[in-house]
Design a protein that fits this description.
The protein is about 30% helix and about 15% strand. It is an alpha/beta fold. The longest helix is centred in the C-terminal third of the chain and has 15 residues, at about 170-185.
Amino acid sequence: PWIARGENGLYVCLNNQAYMNTGVQGSGATPYGTNTSTTPFGKAIRGNQRRQQYLLDLALAAGASYVAAACPLLHRDLMLKVQKAAAIEGPCVVELFSVCPEGWKSDTDVFHEITELALEARSWVLYEAERERKSNSVLFTLNHVPKKYLPVSNYLRLQERFAGMRGFPDMVQQVQEGIETRWAFWNPVLEANGIEWKEETHA
């Protein structure tokens, strides 16, 4: 509601893609196929069957002045986005990719590798969007382009929350197709900046 009212404020979300502090329950941010305490992976139902919701999409639709996706791995990018958001009038949202070893069933020492794979697989895209109030137009900026596009299967490999889904190639392909669909938004931006975009990556 505070975003729709246009109130000044900065909301920083550490997105670990589930309700981790209360028992790893699924949330609107939980990816498709994830095994959580409320979306177990079984024979009849294979993990979370809903498509994840994207916080920044929702914030922009509600009227946010500025939104940005960041991650601790690229700390300078994160710092600049938070500083920028703090200086902009109106509601602002900065969302961070936040690895949760307990909930993601990953080793505690592979935080760097998981985050890097998320960027290279384009499962997590670093961008920002700023609204021009008078015209209500939004300027999107892509902040990071991977040197290589890895298949999402590489990203899923280090997280046992996806162990069940990894055994079903059709599910992994659905995730890959979702990534390609969202990334297609940026293809004109890449072309306009003289950056050759890669062909579709297969899971």
